Batch of 3 targets.
Target 1
Amino acid sequence: MRRLLAVLSTTVLLAGCTASPEPPRTPPTGPAPVVSGPATTLRVLAGSELADMQPILDEAAKATGVTVQLDLIGSLEGAERVATGGADGKYDALWFSSNRYLETLPEAKQRLGNATRIMGSPVVLGVRPATAQRLGWTAGTATWKDIAAAAGRGELTFAMTDPATSNTGFSALVAVASALDGSGRALDAAAIDRVAAPLTGFFSGQRITAGSSGWLTDAFLGRMAGTDPGPAVDGLITYEASLLELNSSGKLSEQLTVIRPGDGVVSADYPLTLLTSAPTGARDAHERLTAYLRGRVAQEQIVARTWRRPGTTGVALPSDLPAAPVELSFPDTRAAIEALLTAYQDRLRRPSRTVYVLDVSGSMAKDGRLKQLKAALEGLTGVNTSLTGEHCRFRSREEVILLPFSSRPAAPQRYTVDAAAPQPSRDLLRAAAGRLRAGGDTAVYDSLLAAYREIDGAADRNRFASIVLMTDGESNRGRVLADFEKQVRQRPATAEPVPVFPVLFGEAAEGQMRRVATVSGGELWDARRGGDLTKTFCQIRGYQ
């Protein structure tokens, strides 16, 4: 929301040159089918993008007596909760963009009951009109092979979520790899090596990464409007529904050309899935709810309100929605999925450079704070073997810089994770974290600017660069917030941005840290009031 407000203020200034948005679709009216029964609450663990279904679920409650209680969560975190049994007894059903990954986990698959497809949306590419014109894609006709080749030639830059944390990113990764492989079969572990070279070319064009589709879209808009630091990028890889909604929203100065790759896509199919642990009453509620949601009126409302495709046949598509693209096969083994994710993280993507600006002032000595900080850092060094932990470890080729600070910034400690033997490098980082000691005052802004100097002074600029700031108090030494804002704004407009991700802890100054995130194009994270610092550090990895 912070980013969108900034973008909207700029859009007002551009109103004179803004293309007319597509007219909003009008939800159908008329009597909805009644699938009545006893009043029941269905507890549903759901993907975060399904918040837009609430108005339709409210109508469903009137018709069916089933009130849906959505608990929104990220894809990978949700999968881990199901696989470990954390959803048993607490939820009656799941509603994620897809069950495909869950079905490759034996411990999760056995917990999945009846699954009913409700709607769908393919993961596609939206590009700026000038880019489409330059590449000859004005009719929306291109393939993933074309897209990968253009990115490899340096003619296309794009934003895409991290495949390890977001379904849109992983669906895009599967689609591009499958199209490049061209076998027509589901990817196996060996296929990754066959397509590694063109995949590396494809990812050389990625300029924005994120752990969620919502944040990614905000960052893309911010770059286009000039309210976020860094040059604009050419395209956005996300759900077709998200692109169509964006084109209709009036938030863009120019509508994006939607490219539905001719060599196939991977789509979200949104199955509303009963858990095997659900009680009998929940099973009846699931049946009533899915019958309503798959009915004509609800399906037409889904298309009109959310821009997703209908999940049942016989529902007419709007005139602006062409026939569904060819669907590519999804990897059907966990080995293939893990091989693809590992290759992406350690070999295919642009490597990252992250400076961890770590508050070790005297206040960190109380309440076990320093111990929690050490544990959070150690969790990124390969010791966290959970489903989520495996994908938030420090990656091969990644440069990690530890910059502890108290009354002044300490000397930076630089580590590059060795591609051939990554674990010894991670072990060195874990040992460095263990040597942190608390004492002194709090020079936040001197330390942040020292981190920027580290990044701007690096010889190798072909990296995702970011700063993680962890502080438990207000800055009381050295430069102030205004000095930081001035320095960041004076960076060249063509410079790659360096987003700061402040992590609130203890008595950190929330207002100031929110401003740091806004000015730098980053995001604020809150690990106070019982928050889990280890979990927070892991979640930030999707943005690095």
Note: The radius of gyration is 24 Å.
Target 2
Amino acid sequence: MTSDRLANLSLAEQACLTSGGTAWTTKAVRDVVRALRLSDGPHGLRRPQDGSLLSASVPATCFPPAVTSGSTWDPALVRRVGAAVAREASALGVDVVLGPGINIKRSPLCGRNFEYFSEDPHVSGVMGAALVEGIQSLGIGACVKHFAVNNQETDRMRVSADVDERTLRELYLPAFEHIVREARPYTVMAAYNRVNGVYACENRWLLTQALREEWGFDGLVMSDWGAVNDRATALAAGLDLQMPPDGSDDQVTAAVKEGRLDRAAVTTAAARVLRLQERVDRAERFDDWDVDAHHELAREAARAGAVLLKNDDDLLPIDPMARLKVAVIGEFARTPRYQGHGSSRVTPTRLDDAWGALRQAAGPELELTFSPGFTVTGEPDSALVEEAVAHAGEADVVLVFLGLPEESETEGQDRTDISLPRCQVDLLRSVAAVCPRVAVVLANGGVVSVSNWRDDAQAILEAWLGGQAGGTALADLIFGAHSPSGKLTESIPLQLQDVPSYLHFPGQDGHTVHGEGRYVGYRYYDTLDLPVAYPFGHGLSYTTFSYTDLEVEETGENAWTVRVAVTNTGSRHGEEVVQLYVAFDEPHPTRPRHELRGFAKLALEPGGSARAEFRLSGRDLAWYSTKRGGWRIDPGAFTVEVGASSRDIRLRAEQRTPGDGIADELTGTSSLGEWLDHPVGGKLLRERLTEHPGAVKLDDVDPLVLSAVAQTPLAKFTGPILGLTREAVTALVAATQKETS
């Protein structure tokens, strides 16, 4: 069908299909292809009322951003959110939703971190795939972004992310790869930045070799808005659609006529636009959605994503039926921070605030008072502080709502620090001085430092950005109608200087060098055993859980099934995120000490038990070898770890892998040690040496001497020592290659 329609289009018509028609639509061409509508929407739709880039958007459900939904560790819940977004997209005439964003949280300073899931590619990949599956379950297209290594907003349109291939393969690309292979997204968005000097939109290695040829992507690649610098180069690299239009279609036809661009590249891109239309034309179409039901789903997601960092003496939950005086302090309780700023900003269908929700849920004998304590913009106000301290001094418990001002978290700029505003910290200390029973509720899209004030709070609830129903979700948690079940998907450092990218972020002279390599987040902190405020995967509950009966069953070559029993040992219903890590104990690290390879969220009643089950494959043990140009599994020991966070490992089991059985290719420049360790080359070398009676016998050499020369290339041993000639080395290489081919 696509080929028939394509045959009816001229070169000029095909070229125009590879560029947008308006800021938010593709081009229509005669009666052959209709215009498709695209909309921002990782956590809800931002469909502008008049079609322009900057106009206000029509109301839609504002679900919690990825920072919160990722902290749920609940793919099934995120899948339901995706389906709800798709239902609203259908009702609003949207064909493709521009999301999810799955870039790695390299630094907590990234101004757009609220749109991303995690510092870990496994979490990002699994949660991102769930959102894609949910959106596409109704036939609406999803767009995975921003491909790739788009981890900062500073100089985002030009900066080159300079990163070695092993780090790319092991950290920055796996989430994209997982989503492409498992969720089959209709579209992928190429990023603004350059990758190792080449713009992502013009990077054939990214858009064609990795994405299509290696991972099997069969959809459309579009640009981020305004990211294309050269239409012809981008089309040749594998970009199919430039957004928005810039009137450069004639440049494409001219490039073809001048021989600078293969016409097949234009035809292929146009065909992918046509195929996208065919896919979305099969979508289910709806006229409206259940506004209340979607609001309740947003409430559930906000509740599940909140992370209880600290809860000394079980300060939380507060019994809503108790005879208590509770002081609610902080403007964010009344004026909620519920989403970040920029292209993902949604106009909500309604908006709940925590102060109103707490009053509605409180029993008749619970006395609540409110004082703002500070302004939304963070300006200090002594009168507001005095009022807050007065209320706190009369209270049994104080709830202090703190967080980051909206302008500090926005697309287009990075943060400069991770501290709360000074006036908020001063307010907390003043309140804690008159009432020791203080719980802090945080509202922020990026990590904030807690180390300089956490001793002033008995409890800390990291609520992130809760979307439009975050206020009622907080009341559910504070009053104990539900137990917190969120876990951190990023480490909280003690201070900004501890962050592994601190010396490299955001770079200068148009380059950001990823000098920390693969050691981002817990991969760095745990490998070096450095202290953090709260580790990756951490999150408390109102109940407790025990882990027992770890079983690791080998089910095939480099394949295992891991099972563990988890029991709710407390008195409340709760949900536990069971985390599976694979660990390697090396005297000198060549890879992170351990890495997340699976997780499962279990809902358990008091006394109830369930088993979490995971599958491990060879890829879970592999590392990317640039020498080999692929993934490799080394033979040896590894450890299966199961726990409640990266620093709270409950059970361990040592296993062994035979490796992948692939021997590296040997050359004359391969070292003596590499030759001796090679299963074929070592045998041939020893046989060759026995043929030369005057040569030194390796078995008679002092091990220390042999160790000292083990790194010397074999070609350096031509002469009397080993009795080798250049011809003999060449023959050994040829014989080894013949036996291993």
Note: The longest strand covers residues 545-556.
Target 3
Amino acid sequence: MQILFDPEEQLFHLQNKHTSYVMKVTEEGYLAHLYWGRKLRSSSTAHLLKMIDRPFSPNCNPENPAFSLDTLPQEYPVYGHGDFRVPALEAIFADGTSVVDLRYRNHRILEGKPALAGLPMIYTESPHEALTLEIDLFDPVQELQVTLLYTVFSQIGVITRSARLYNAGQQPIQLTRALSMSLDLPCSSWDMMQLSGAWGRERHLVRRPVVPGMQAVESRRGASSHHQNPFLALMASDARDTHGEVMAVNLVYSGNFLALAEQDSLQQTRLQIGINPADFSWLLEPGEIFQTPEAVLVYSAEGLDGMTEIFHNAYRERLCRGLHRHQPRPILINNWEATYFAFDEEKLLQLAEEAGQLGIELFVLDDGWFGQRDNDKTSLGDWRVNLKKLPHGLAGLAESIAEKGMKFGLWFEPEMVSPESQLFREHPDWCLHVPGRRSSTGRHQYVLDFSRKDVCDFIVHSVSEILSSAPIQYVKWDMNRHMTEIGSACLPVERQRETAHRYMLGLYAVMETLTTRFPEVLFESCSGGGGRFDPGMLYYMPQTWTSDNTDAIERLYIQYGTALVYPPITMGAHVSAVPNHQVQRITPLATRGIVAMGGNFGYELDITKLTNEEKNIVAEQVETYKQIRETVQFGRYFALANPFEGDFYAWMFVSQNRQQAVVSCVTKLQQANHAIHRLRLKGLDAEAQYRVELVQGMSYESDIYGGDELMYAGIAIPYFTTDFQSCMWKLSKLNA
């Protein structure tokens, strides 16, 4: 890890153990991008910047007709001064103009990593873990300063970027576009990879060639969304799992975002990510600062496996925080699909009795415990226990569950309010709304205005009262609709388009307060399942409910896509009943268990209705997961077979010391008389011997194999003849 500056060449060279990132200040004072790729020994890379006089590309320096911002590979391009590509920054000044001209002013190299006020970020625990470069760019006419922040780390392979905008003048500036990063990459045959979908089929892998023009993914929904994830990667066209270049960006933000790749006429590709400019502006008064969210950049020369390892290490070690970061996560049962709203204390204790006997460790009470909440049309915001359902309150219920050997967890949806609620009747102006406009509902509810301090204070108080009233050790924080009529009663006219971002700042402040006040509580985020599975949420809540779709086969695609970027320890995964409640598919209980063991394991079904045989299977699954839990949650993940490309999905986890590994495989629809497939394993010690045991699946003799044999020759998948079958192997290294 180092940041080098060559004053003679005006070159910046950032290095970590994986990559080099090189920039140069041109003679005209612009900050140009030279290189991002494999780690370089030399800083003598100024020769990489080649400029040619191009027709219809304007020249800001008449003495150098070859120089044009329209073709210069830039670090933070702006609007109006000769670059016709998409800018990272746009603004309207007091004189009504929008031309911005940013030139290099100075820079600083700092030990450590400064905090980003009010925003989540990759953090350090010691100043020696990182170096930060701050580069000041300045527009002397409009007196706007943009400070670009770059951080490199000693132990994690990411580079982080963001921008800090400062109004150094005497007149206000209206920001209309302020992205977190921009990167101009040279000619190449790129593919673009994104994670897209919808409710119930989140983060499906989409890969397509980059073509001339703009290709983008975005959310305008007030959340990062089920539909697109704030992630984008450019891949060499020949890149695959284990080889080829991958350049990826992920935004540490949970609201509206834009990620794009624009290929120009010279085949340069501009990669950008940041807050979505749609319905965004920010009034920057004299002396004020606007800080953009952080972008996480990952370069891999070892294909998707290399990219995934870097993201997983960074997020597991330096994004997720708190007491639970390195603690094994409990096996839970959630009552939602077992009872929905139709429960009472007796029914919950019946579920808990069975769960405790099967070895489950945490009982989670989902929606319906408060107010008059017998359906989804009422009571959000009225966070008071329904004593008709729970006559002994949450404390009495939690005590009874503890007697059965389990911890107790609780569902909230604090960001919402029901029209049929005491809170809405008393404070109708507390929800997002535009005067004179009809307010849309979603799931029969409105969105509270978290840009308001009084709303945030109320939520902190209400949730704190509940969490202090009983031994609650887990919280599922849900958010079940997206934003419409985005306006705030507390903001003036000129600041209404700040509402969505101010909402996120308010939400982050609430989460920071609650997670700090209750550090022993394991918080899990949720938004109709995986509708807000992003790095911003993981900074406050170290795991996320991956999807409301619990069908084992649908989950293959969802969990594969999610695990490309996010560590399995962040993914909630449950076994549910069949026919599945989302797609009505019937899959074997063994297969449902193996799929759910690909993340934080749990159950979401009425276990009192299981047969004795099924209960025995559940008990075996629980015991199996306890044996492999630390390898799954803290080991290295590898995808062995892509479900989007074949008839099955296979994956494995390898403990950090390579002493244990777990390999799983789930088939989809079977073919008659099909081939025998072999899985080539990854990440093992090639020189070691491993005992291979089939934990679940068809009969398979335990035997001893070399790590090299397992990785290079592979292991045969059992010959299944029916649909939706699965198997799991446990590997144990034999010490010489």
Note: The chain has a mean pLDDT of 96.
